[in-house]
Amino acid sequence: MVSMPSMPSIPTMPGSWDLSPSPYTTPALEAPNTHTYVTTQLLSRRREFLSPKTVTVQVSTWNIGSFESAHDLPEWLPKVSKSPEQVDIYALALQEVVDVTNTQNFLRYIDPKIALSWKAHAQNALPAGYECVASTQLIGMLLMVFVSPRIADSTTNVSVSNVGTGLMGYVGNKGGVGVRIVLGDTLRLVFVNCHLAAFTNATDRRNWDAAEISRRLVFDPVTKETVGLNESTALPKYEQEGLDKSDIVFWTGDLNYRIELDNADVRSLLKPWMPKDLPPTHADISTPPSPIVGRNESKEKEKDEKDGKNGKEEPHLPPTPSEMHPAAAMTLEGTIDSLMRHDQLLKVRREGNPAWNDFKEGKVTFLPTYKYDQGTVGVFDSSEKARVPAWCDRILWRLRAPLPVADGAGTSKPQVPDKNAEMLFEAVDSEEEDEEEDDLIVTRGDTPSPVRTSLDTQRPYDDPVSSYTTPFGPITVSQLSYVSHQHITTSDHKPVSSLFSLTFPASVPAQRTTIHAEIVREADKMENEHRPVITVLIDSPTNEISSSENHALDFGNIAALRIYELTLTVANTGTSIAHTSFVDPPKKEYLTIEPLPAKALQPGETASASIRLHVNTPELARKFNSGEEKLDDVVVLHTKDGKDTFLPLTATWQPTTFGTPISELLHVPESSGGYRAWAAQSEDQKQGNARYSSPRELYRLTEHIIGVLPSCTAQGHPNPFARSQQLATVEQSNDVLATWEALDTDTPFPAETTAEAAITVLEQWFRALPDALVDWDTVPAAAKKKGSAVLESLDKEAVNIVVYMTAVW
């Protein structure tokens, strides 16, 4: 890991770069936090894969006034740059794509075909290969962002947001739309298209609109792949973001700020420079004749003719520096500078209005963009209203702001307008404006806010180059051009475009992939080292201790009625805490798996559990004898954040006469090794075996009982049958189990086998038979009173057993 240089201690303010030391300077990995480790390490090594990258961005805005203007896009949109195909991003902001003076348009559904049509026209106007990554519309405002193939793969995290600030502060006839993209895994770039309140005297309302847009624009969280340009290596909070999280904001649209001068003065100053075709570009150009013949000029012309001037009008010159506009020079540039000093936007920025904190605008060198007679190159509004010419259409930019906008504007926590704020909405009807543009004007009560402006009071524009230093290199915005398209005549506004060059630290994909792979390998290694490790020991029925890696949970040979138990011991042999448990253990009626203790095992600690097996019913015994049931399963021991241990669970069944039908026992020959050996034979081997009159097991048990009865009397136990009842009510004694083993294998009974044990086995043998010897429910009532009649109702095998038992006892 590359160590990070120490950074100076700088107070952190909302929206600023966090230069505090990283809490991950000494990384430590816990098993559950592998993702955290990989993310923080990748962030801490950003200097290894970030490199300066430069992209070209063109921002264009046009209020089309709901006129049919789409066919004009090829005439100006791709012609700002000498090499249109070298522009990486085109951001096109349109206003009034529908008639916003028609209230039906902002109260009803907007047809998406409008945006799709503009998108198609813009796509056709641009060089081939550009992709529209975002398009968002709010009634009349439409913002589209196109990227070139060169940066398409590195353009991610596209998100859009809309804010209405019109009627009652919410309706979308006024407001703004925004698009956020991330370039090169680092740069959060936002484009804002706005249409602010109209009227010359609505400056406060425009400021409020802009502040609300800044405050309420909220974008989706960025993805985890975005590394950003913040020094902190803490795991990012993936939450919604406001403008305060953006590295660069381009703000454009119809801002509607006006010139606070008399209409006649403005027109008088601009008159010498109004073009017939294109605006003059040289300061020494001779004064062109004005194409405008207004009402006042007509009167002057008539007066001149009466005075004998033969209709020859003397050139109209702008005021001299000694007159009412002392900054006006005898050039177009000087005239524009003189008028811009009375521009409302420049004024509110110079005053440090918080709505425009830290925004910059390049030098305006073009004629006012509003308002022209439609279809003319340079004829200002000649209608009865005769609007004052103004630069309504603007393009500004802002690098990440060190302070938040007042009233919570631009913060990442979305807010709603404060209902308690002192606001006054007034309906305005100005004689200088159309009734169709009636709007709501808002004035706010005095609110203390930081006053901050970078605008030079001696000049009405900012430097074309802005730079901000991040911990990984500077972000630089260079304005290459700022022009209007005077020759476009299909709207009463002129389009405005600005070309920018952005330089910023961006991720180099190949280097990032290599470093990410290194971190993942390191994380895997550390994860394995910190992963809980357990060792499982098994205490088998033969008291042999074995490791789970070499031995299964094998009960070995199992027989009916006998209880088998394995002890499983789990030892934490690693360096981390271990949480272990059985996962979905096998569910069998003859199997009991004791759960492990719920507590976590510290390194070096152990925990034990037992697994108990007991086949104690004749039904189970018959299933094991037939092969219908067998024990061949797996016990899964899960270790949280560690490896699961899979323990095969097996046992080998030993066939038994317990529960075996008499019809089957009659075929077991003498000297065959008993039922167990005979059951293991194939069906072919079993063919031809003689059929006996009674099971050999019955003979052996009765002979043994008769043989040991005298000893019972000598020992003072004259009634072993009564004592056998006691044995049958408790867990199987060793004598009883040994007797069953000898019976199943046709081996001699142990010498210590007592009459009580043999009687107990005999009783269990009879009880385990699938069918009763005598089914009293089927014996006629009359026959029950006569023994011979009972025998006549029984099967031959049952008759032989009953006769034999009667004779013996």
Q: How many β-strand runs?
A: 23
Q: What is the approximate shape?
A: rod-shaped
Strand residue percentage: 15-25%
CATH topology of the largest domain: Deoxyribonuclease I, Chain A
Number of helices: 18
Oligomeric state, counting identical vs distinct chains = single chain
Task: Indicate the structural class.
Answer: alpha+beta
Average pLDDT: 80
Pfam families: Exo_endo_phos2 (PF22669), OCRL-like_ASH (PF21310)
Biased composition (Acidic residues): 429-440
GO molecular function, one term: phosphatidylinositol-4,5-bisphosphate 5-phosphatase activity
InterPro entries: Endo/exonu/phosph_ase_sf (IPR036691), Ig-like_fold (IPR013783), IP5 (IPR046985), IPPc (IPR000300), OCRL-1_2_ASH (IPR048869)
Give a nutshell description of this structure.
Residues 277-325, 429-467 are annotated as: Disordered. Residues 429-440 have a biased composition (Acidic residues). With 809 residues, the chain is an alpha+beta fold.
